[in-house]
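Following the same procedure, sequence and fold were stored together, as reproduced here.

>
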Amino acid sequence: MATTVITGRDLALTIATKTYDAQVTTVTLEADHVIETYQTLDGRAYKAIDDSWTLNLEMLADWGASGGAGTYSICELLWTAAETAPNTTLACSLTAATGAVFAFDVLPTFPSVGGSAPDAQTVSLSFQVVGTPTETFS
């Protein structure tokens, strides 16, 4: 079998039906898989009890980018969602060029505001994923 190399440039990120991969520099979908260990008379026993998922983004700040011709600011979208509907999930998907798709919902969070000279303004975000992502492997 030939080696397959997938880079971050092979990913597309969609949040609330809009694609933001042109702004995002790093994206990870991570699980915290909680396993309890019990000491029994027969030895150790293990039980998976919970999964908690997180979507982490590093991106270029895009305040003020909303406008015509399909331009949307993820910073503005998130600020508005966190301010007006903080308990309403946003549908997301992470799609690889190979066809693998991970679909999930996140709770909105306020993006940070600021920067340092002379660097580009960046935003780091960590979203709580609601439920477990679904996956489709092609």
Remarks:
- The chain has a mean pLDDT of 89.
- The two ends are 16 Å apart (CA to CA).
- Residues 61 and 69 are 19 Å apart (CA to CA).
